[in-house]
Write a structure and sequence with these properties.
Two copies of one chain form a homodimer.
Chain A: E1 3-6, E2 10-16, E3 19-26, H1 28-36, E4 42-49, H2 54-62, E5 66-73, E6 79-85, E7 92-98, E8 118-121, H3 126-135, E9 141-145, H4 148-153, H5 155-164, E10 167-171, H6 172-179, H7 184-193, E11 198-202, E12 208-212, E13 216-219, H8 233-248, H9 253-270, H10 277-280, H11 284-297
Parallel strand pairs in A: 1-4, 1-8, 2-6, 4-5, 8-9, 9-10, 10-11
Antiparallel strand pairs in A: 2-3, 6-7, 11-12, 12-13
Chain lengths: 300, 300
């Protein structure tokens, strides 16, 4: 089945202890769609400026990603983010943000996208995410990401959104901020009380926790000595997770758990180089081999 | 097979967001031996003062722990530690330490203990740990714990110790301090280069990483909403780990991995109440049921 993602397309400038990139292809919808493209047909909705290199769109198309929902705003500039990672690289220091065309992004789904069964609302204002949701017609699974900013300034809209989606993805600090619970299991349970069927709490280098009414489990990150750039890890995780679910067309507990494992493994490739570079050097067969390794790591 | 532990016996005063205890039974060798007692015969070597309650020794004896190596120093006071946990409870603020009889502890193994095949050197000065090691005759597996203090003030002795043991257990911050590597996989590999067959890096609420020349894997902590007091979690982990290995009399990779899982599960019981209280309400059957749950959590 096909998978729709609505989110940001960015030109990222990133510094880590392992190097620097300038105006590299990034953004939540970019990482998500590239990661998901190993599993299923992906439909991308986003906005860029006239400065967005043709080669970047071609790269996405080369993975079979449908970019007919990618709007090029005349006279506009693409969203730019620059950040720096130090030490354990668990969080970025944002150096500069230029929203540019993203600041007035009011996504309209192409008619051919409104029946997409699997939908991912990448991080964005809850008001915008809800407007997108209203444009979808037949949905099998809707998952949303969010961030601390929206918990602070659009909490009511966010609470409404959480009520409307099937799954919510957020990181540990955001889960604590949203629920005022320090213990992550308790925080996750409070999110479930807000409406969704499941919640995924991302813990950076420590993996991710999944909670539903039926079960709670943690999947550790795939251990790597060569973590080069964590940018996009969370969106790559979500892309692998949703991509696998769309590929099997199912949301039963067994599929959700395997999707968590795929998300973890796909994210582990992403962090091994800047931007989409490591993804460009992998394929589904290598992802499946690492999944097998990951499975055997946790078998006892 | 039997298991020897040499380490501290303490009277702990602990504050957490969930309550307070005063002069409760604690110490590395206490948590370790109680945790290991679910699996194999345990021999404990330590020192206490005349103020050490008889009931505490009886509690250890009631689990079959051989306390004939527990020295009561005349006129002395038992080691006391008091600490406070806040927020995510990942680390304690030490409020007071009174070494008392532990300050001059020079452990001598009872003759009947020198042939114990499995040996755990709980956290203590590397010089002391090495003196104990020299007293052991036939050893199948020796594992040592350490802490930041010894990395700072007895680094040379610690390096010698690490060369002599089969396995080293330390936490993430200590691994980084010892090796000057921020990435934990790289840090673990550097520890392996120092001599031991394996290293276990404890990550608190995020579980533990195992590294040997053959494999690297992470086991997440068992997810719990009711974490009451993390004191002794690392020693309980080590007790479950070594106890299981001693019970099967093996140190092959399959046994080591299952031991990591048992250590994780045993530690999860420990943190659910203060001191040894939760341990006192469990048994091997319940531990095995949680191990089954843990296994199914990570099966996909």
């Amino acid at each position: 089945m096909s998978l729709l993602v609505v989110g940001s397309i960015a030109l990222d400038s990133v510094q880590t202890p392992h190097g620097v990139v300038t105006d590299a292809l990034g953004g939540s919808a970019t990482y998500f769609s590239y990661a998901a493209s190993y599993f299923c047909p992906v439909r991308l909705v986003g906005v860029v400026g006239e400065d967005f290199p043709v080669a970047h769109r071609e790269l996405l198309n080369s993975r079979g990603i449908d970019t007919s929902g990618l709007v090029v705003e005349k006279g506009g500039s693409t969203f730019r983010w620059s950040g720096k990672y130090e030490g354990d690289m668990n969080s970025a220091d944002t150096l500069e943000v230029h929203l540019n065309v993203l600041g007035t992004f009011d996504p309209e789904l192409p008619a051919s996208f409104t029946d997409t069964p699997f939908v991912f609302l990448a991080n964005g204002s809850p008001a915008m995410q809800r407007k997108v949701l209203k444009q979808t017609k037949t949905r099998k699974l809707v998952v949303a990401d969010t961030m601390n900013l929206w918990i602070e300034i659009q909490r009511d809209e966010l609470v409404e959104l959480i009520r409307e989606v099937d799954g919510l993805v957020l990181n540990d600090g955001e889960a604590r901020m949203l629920t005022q619970e320090i213990n992550l299991v308790s925080a996750g349970q409070k999110v479930l009380d807000m409406g969704p069927s499941f919640v995924i709490i991302k813990k950076g280098e420590h993996g991710a926790m999944f909670l539903s009414r039926e079960e709670t489990f943690v999947m550790p990150a795939f251990p790597l000595a060569d973590v080069v750039d964590p940018t996009g890890a969370g969106d790559s995780f979500a892309g692998g997770f949703m991509g696998y679910l769309a590929s099997v067309g199912s949301t039963d507990p067994t599929s959700l758990k395997k999707a968590m494992a795929y998300g973890t493994v796909v994210a582990s490739f992403n962090v091994q180089d800047f931007s989409l570079r490591r993804f460009q050097r992998t394929d589904r067969a290598e992802i499946d081999r690492r999944l097998d390794t990951y499975r055997s790591m946790m078998s006892f």
